[in-house]
Design goal:
Layout lengths: L2 E2 L3 H4 L7 E3 L2 E3 L15 E4 L5 E4 L4 H23 L1 H4 L3 H26 L5 H5 L2 E5 L7 H9 L1 H4 L1 H13 L6 H6 L1 E5 L19 E2 L2 H13 L5 H8 L3 H4 L3 H18 L1
Antiparallel strand pairs: 1-8, 2-3, 4-5, 6-7
Helix pairs in contact: 2-4, 4-6, 10-13, 11-13
Length: 263
């Protein structure tokens, strides 16, 4: 566990728990957070024996995609409302508008998830996609179920979805749980480069050897992580560096450089 210097004496009797679980490096942090997972990758084995890794998308990345999709749906609804004035018979125009609004509201996500490899326009921008929990492409029945249950998730200011994702290992909303789906990152490259060794910074806490290895492992893997995933992992150490976003990633990479320089 990473323990601030002023709390070392109090923490000496507590054992460190850094271990590998299903291909994930787990590092605990006792002050002020407890049992924090630094990487939520899921390791799955296919029936053919191949190993695949899924990186569940966090709340911020999913909210980003959600807002974009909702704005697109709003524009589509505004365009559909023009059907009312385009037809000389007002009842026909109103019927076509209601039909279009129904399709946009309930089947926007289904259409993109089935015909665009699990990616809505919002998910494309956020580098996300939805798949079955076993990593296989999402099926029609699963897509229908998760999208029809969206009304439950976004009710009460999206509180049900936020609570469900916060309490779920794979950041699953209620619809994902019942449809057995998961939203994952698809981006593999990153624009943020690893700082040179000269940019090393000494982390202001006492680390065990396993924790030092966790930091250097993060540095070695950062180029294969999506931007939002690297930021989420780096921000777990925010109580130490006090930063967010790419600044947090740079700080953690500099800590890793400092660890490498001290070895």
């Amino acid at each position: 566990m990473i323990v601030p210097l002023q709390d070392q004496n109090r923490a000496e009797s507590t054992s460190s728990q850094d271990f590998e679980e299903s291909g994930r490096t787990v590092m605990t942090y006792t002050h002020p957070l407890e049992n924090v997972i630094t990487d939520t990758r899921e390791q799955l084995e296919t029936p053919e024996g191949a190993i695949i890794h899924l990186c569940p998308a966090g709340i911020c990345a999913r909210a980003h995609a959600f807002v974009i999709d909702e704005l697109i749906k709003l524009v589509l609804l505004i365009v559909a409302s023009m059907l009312i004035v385009l037809f000389p018979i007002e009842q026909i125009g109103l019927f076509l508008f209601l039909l279009s609004a129904f399709a946009i509201t309930w089947f926007y996500g289904v259409a993109f998830e089935i015909f665009n490899d699990g990616r809505t326009p919002g998910k494309n921008v956020a580098h996300l996609k939805v798949v079955n929990s076993d990593g296989t492409p999402i099926r029609l029945a699963s897509s229908l179920l998760r999208n029809l249950l969206r009304i439950v998730d976004i009710g009460l200011l999206c509180i049900p979805a936020l609570v469900s994702m916060a309490m779920s290992k794979g950041f699953k909303r209620i619809g994902d749980h019942l449809a057995d789906t998961i939203v994952i990152y698809t981006e593999t490259g990153r624009g943020l480069k690893r700082p040179k060794l000269e940019a090393g910074t000494t982390i202001p806490v006492k680390l065990t050897r396993a924790e030092e290895t966790a930091l250097t492992d993060f540095q070695d893997r950062v180029d294969s992580l999506s931007g939002p995933r690297a930021q989420e992992l780096a921000e777990i150490l925010k109580p130490i560096h006090g930063l967010t976003g790419d600044a947090a990633v740079r700080a953690v990479l500099e800590y890793a450089n400092g660890v490498r320089g001290s070895l």
